[in-house]
Amino acid sequence: MTPPPRLLPLMLPQPGLAALRDAALVEGFGFVERLMRDWDSGANRFAQPGEQLVGAFEGARLLGVAGLNRDPYLRQAGVGRLRHLYVAPGARGRGVGAALVRHLLRGTAFHRLRLRTDTAAAAAFYLRLGFHAVADATATHEIHLPPAGHDARADGVAGDWR
Predict the structure, then answer these.
(1) Contact 121, 69 (CB under 8 A)
(2) What is the per-residue DSSP string for 63-126?
(3) What is the edge-to-edge ordering of all strands in the sheet holding 52-58?
(4) Residues 6 or more apart whose Cβ sits within 8 Å of residue 100
(5) What's the rounded mean pLDDT across residues 46-51?
(6) Contact 28, 43 (CB under 8 A)
(7) At how many degrees (to 10) do helices 120-128 and 96-106 cross?
(8) Neighbours of 47 (CB within 10 A)
(9) Fewest Cβ atoms nearer than 10 Å: which of 33, 88, 111, 118?
(10) Residue 107: pLDDT band by 50, 70, 90 thresholds?
(11) pLDDT value for 125
């Protein structure tokens, strides 16, 4: 059995991120490239309170990446946005994406997280983790999180994010 990936904060430039970008572009996804461009320009460095960018590693190899920002579309206190989740094709099906999302959900001060996806596979993935679909121009899914230290099972919070 493969050991779980190590989840670590990322700072760019990050060895292996260009390879993830290239793989994402082959699949028609431009968001890893946008992540790198926004970091380089200073537009988004995941540096605001509550924000973070993490990578999943197997040894020194970067398997995947995911970020958490304040939601720029709502600009409401306590609302974050899950962004730029990408896992290398060869690492899929091993729980890497779920580990990244769970890590971000467990460590967040945000009480509500939103995201946008345009693939059925990603939509199903987020539903399994407890997100629910929303009809919104700027988000396809969201999850409401209990306060830190609260037992979510007592409130019937769905999903497998803990």
Answers:
(1) no
(2) EEEEEEEE-TTT--TTEEEEEEEEE-GGGTTTTHHHHHHHHHHHT---SEEEE----HHHHHHH
(3) 6-9, 52-58, 61-70, 79-87, 112-115, 141-144, 132-133
(4) 7, 54, 56, 64, 65, 66, 85, 87
(5) 94
(6) no
(7) 50
(8) 10
(9) 118
(10) confident
(11) 96
* Residues 58-63, mean pLDDT to the nearest whole number: 95
Query: Residue 150 above 70 pLDDT?
Result: no
Q: What's domain 6-155's superfamily in CATH?
A: Gcn5-related N-acetyltransferase (GNAT) (3.40.630.30)
Give 124's pLDDT tier (boundaries 50, 70, 90).
very high
Sketch the domain layout of the chain as residue ranges: 6-155
Q: Is the peptide bond before 13 cis (omega within 30 degrees of 0)?
A: yes
**Amino acid letter, 20:** L
pLDDT bin (cut points 50, 70, 90) of residue 28 is: very high
Rounded mean pLDDT of 9-38? Answer: 95
